[in-house]
Amino acid sequence: MSDTRTGSAWPLVLLLIVAAPLGARAGASAGLLPPALEWRLGAARTSRLLPIRGEPALPVRLQIPRIGVDAAITAVDLRPDGSLEVPAARDAGWYRRTPVPGAHGSAVLTGHVDTPRAPAIFARLAELRPGDRIGVAGEDGWTTVFEVRALSRHAKAALPPALWRPDRRRLLRVITCGGSFDHQRRSYHDNIVVHTVAVGRWQPDGDRLVP
Amino acid sequence: MSRRVLIVSMTFALALAALPAAAQTPDPTTSPTGTPTSTASPTATSTASPTATASPTATTSPTAEATPSETASAEPTPTPAEEPSPAASPDCPGGSGGVTSTSSTGAASDESTMAAQQAAPADCPSEDGGIVLRPAATEAPSEDAQADAAALPGDGTVEAAGSLGGVTAPSRIDSGGGYLAERRPTGLLTAWPVLVMAGLALLAIRQGRRRRA
Prior knowledge:
heterodimer, A: Sortase, Chain: A, eight-stranded mixed beta barrel, disordered C terminus, B: mainly alpha
């Protein structure tokens, strides 16, 4: 008798076992995860951001809730051949010759779209839309919040010089690879550029903004 | 019977949990995935370039022109975080028309696809040949918004007078290994969890009928 009861419950149990990871995956693909991160920048969106004054601290963490990015930032520089270093697959790299994100000028962050074996930090970068928020946390605990204005795509050999020009405003460009893939050279043909502008800063402290 | 079903289902569930995130990630080699948005508004276009229409096939076609003030807007910034914005022209540069692409593949349709899915009413060819995707116009642009637009490549980046030095441009940025390009999930690969669930549901129904019988 009890065997019959147990047997009748198996299909339901099995469905739950299968459905649980499916649900979690669907949530992740919808940009709902990680929830804590979504909440944090969501709070920044609805709360009053503080004006940016002075020069921000060195960047240590990048947050892009829309595509589930919450990663460490490391400083990168040019290689001897003139190409830009790219950090580990799960990190973002700040090009150290550009301004600190949040400072006047055009700061540049870069990162992998994928590796030969797996997707990387910016696998979903091209999903960003105008109005999406990007947070760059500095060593001092303050987060500079940027808003996406546009995306563009350029051949790697023809990145616009304007990306590297000085600017009076506080810009951030996030760059990764895109376009078609050259299987012989093992490289993508193009670069995807996300253009953002700073809209304020905030310092999360529980659920409050600390000036 | 139940044990067999359990073992098979557990195996599927474990495999599902271990399924790489790539199966859910967009293919960066073409354009952003997601629902193609039909956003090309006849009231928000550029006077200088044709607008990429937001059709799933991503073709480009000219659209009606609008006043310049409607083209370079961005979402209104809720709080000003900047010093007074520098004056700048929000228009696309030049008047040559035609969306040019710097894509080495020469696939203009790829660019257009991207443009369409970015919900950009007007794609402006930059002076460098790339495409700048403009955010949709929601209301009259603020000074901040105009300044934002000015900062994008190709429309007259405002430069400081000498106080900020230039940056050495890298010759190349290689940030991809090809996983997403080479392991694009097929329809069957992405659909198999659904098939498994359907199978289990059928199994459950059959077992229920047996017991009732």
